[in-house]
Amino acid sequence: MLGLMQDHPLLISSVLEHALRSHPLTPIASRTVEGPIHHCTYADVGRRAKQMANALTRLGIAPGERIGTLAWNGYRHMELYFAVSGMGAVLHTINPRLFPEQIEFIVQHAEDRVLFFDLTFSALVEQLAPHLPGVKAFVAMTERRHMPDIQIPNLLCFEELIASESEEFVWPCLDERLASSMCYTSGTTGNPKGVMYSHRSSLLHSLALCTPDGFGLSAADSALLVVPMFHVNAWGMPYACAMSGAKLVLPGPALDGASLYELMRSERVTLALGVPTVWMMLQQHVETQGLAPAAELCLERVVIGGAAAPRSQVERFERDFDTRVMHAWGMTEMSPLGTVCNPLPKHAGADLEARLDLQAKQGRALFGVSMKVVDDEGVELPRDGRSAGHLLVQGPWIASHYYRNDETILDAQGWFDTGDVATIDADGYMQITDRAKDVIKSGGEWISSIDLENAAMGHAAVAEAAVIGIPHEKWQERPLLVVVLKPGRAASKAELRDFLAERVAKWWLPDDVAFVDELPHTATGKLLKMKLRERFRDYVLAGD
Ligand code: ADP
Does residue 482 line the site of ligand 1, with CB under 6 A? Predict the structure, then answer.
């Protein structure tokens, strides 16, 4: 027997319409590429999104066609999020930090019909345009007086494109399973792979973000999205903020510590989301300038995700900013959110050390995400917080296929292997110990590179640390610690090893330490261990 309830599809246009009815005047603050902060409201975004939907219809964009963006976090990008998906086309956000050849590949692979770009990327677009015959129009996200001086056919101006369009547009009633947006993985191995989100998956994921044990969003929040809108829909926040009525603060291209700090202060940010590398820059700025964030900011919560949150970083937020850290984990294939680390009643009153121990974990699964850890043979391991294995996931906002590839990416029981190695404890807290390919295998046991990096970053002189396995005759592999020191700070190899000796098991201690000026990162800000392993391929450990 069917239920007798109304059957409304879960559509991205419904999120915008809700924002227009329930919090039209809630502000959206964006730092523009030109520098100044632009202020508008959800009402403005809605009005202009409808004009854009009319403009794209006039350009002949049909349902299901892909529209590319090469853009920072800003109000025009937000308008495209709703215009493109709302009208039934697919928003393809492109990571501008990919190599130009990769960008060319994914624009061709996705068959983007129109490519919107921020002025920062004008030269890149000029270079790519001759190789992108399928793109009918390139739209500079600016007004006429700032149009770039580049030589490409079909160059349009965003503001001119929408200027004379009607502010009325009736969003089509789509099948909620249709594609709404897409994003390619960074392709550290091989070509990037396209992940295609649906209206349904995006809405369910965003609802989960809003819950108290998700990010706990509300109309009282002012949310700074340092996570880029060009990768995994900025963790779904543009939709979740429009759902909950949170104020949006979009930092544009200025992701340095000083600019973020200024924005946090001027826009009274209560919640900020980003990867550890941006928080490292923010905290360094606070340290070198001698600022007093706890007094100057009203930052209640920070979400750290995309890579393991270093304990020292979490501690600084808690101690110096008086800010609660929510450690989160996920991946492009998961929309991206899988887990968030929030405390349970039994953790009430825990002291700082105990809180830091808990926050080192990536957290508990949101409703909608099932997960388990299995051994090499696929046998499920106990949830004891100790047994580490391959982390598998399932759920309605997790990919089943990559774009234009018929092969499923799930196993016979429908599980997706995340490529991460993790433990799950009896309360359901998951902790990543490594990427499967980064685990250091020493004498038949696994050493967690993440734990070692975390411990090393607790040293006052260390800005960033990476640990990789170096082949070893007797032990198979042994850890090498690669360190970037903070400007003006010094530490010897022996000092760092002594520091670690107090924090990790003796057999985990890195055999050697190498000092470098900079560590390689992926286009999404993660340590690029593959590059590092190449660089240190012939390295002879000091102990050998
Ligand atoms: P890409 O950069 O290739 O698009 P994703 O952004 O999808 O990759 O990254 C997903 C991976 O990032 C996860 O599988 C995991 O290895 C890592 N990751 C994400 N969040 C965390 C976290 N909180 N702690 C440790 N690793 C994390």
Answer: no
Instruction: Give yes or no: residues 142 and 16 share one domain.
Output: yes
Given the residues 372, 441, 486, 531, the one annotated as active site:
441
Is residue 136 annotated as a catalytic residue, yes or no? Answer: no
Task: Assess whether 83 and 195 both reside in one domain.
Answer: yes
Percent of the chain with pLDDT over 90: 88
Q: Is 418 labeled as catalytic in the residue annotation?
A: no
Instruction: Answer whether residue 333 is part of any domain.
Output: no
Strand partners, 272: 224, 302
Query: What confidence tens digit (pLDDT) does each residue in 126-181 have?
Result: 999 999 999 999 999 999 999 999 999 899 999 999 999 999 999 999 999 999 99
Residues 246 and 387 in one domain: no
Residues 413, 490 within the same domain? no
CB 337 within 8 A of CB 330: yes
CATH number at residue 450: 3.30.300.30
Report the pLDDT averaged over residues 376-388.
Answer: 96
What is the predicted pLDDT for the residue at 189? 67
What's the domain range around 225?
A: 12-254
CA of 213 to the centre of ligand 1 (A): 20
Residue nearest to atom 12 of ligand 1 (CA): 306
- Measured from the Cα of 185, ligand 1's closest atom is 4
Average pLDDT, integer, range 439-446: 86
Q: Is 507 helix (H, G, I), strand (E, B) or coil?
A: helix
At 125, is the secondary structure helix, strand, or coil?
Answer: helix
**Confidence (pTM):** 0.92
Cβ(438) – ligand 1 distance below 6 Å = no
Beta strands in 191-254 (DSSP E): 194-198, 222-225, 247-250
Task: Name the residue of 303, 304, 373, 432 whose CB sits within 8 Å of the most ligand 1 atoms, as the mutation to test its pocket.
Answer: 432
Contacts of 33-40 with C-beta under 8 Å, sequence gap 24+, read 33/72, 33/74, 33/118, 33/119, 33/120, 33/142, 33/252, 33/253, 34/119, 34/146, 37/263, 37/266, 37/267, 38/74, 38/75, 40/75
Q: Which two tokens stand for residue 249?
A: 């603060």
Task: Decide: 185 in ligand 1 pocket, CB within 6 A.
Answer: yes
CB contact at 8 A, 393 and 416: yes
Active site residue 333: yes
Is 449 near ligand 1, meaning CB less than 6 Å away? no
| Closest CA relative to residue 317, chosen from 300, 330, 305 | 300
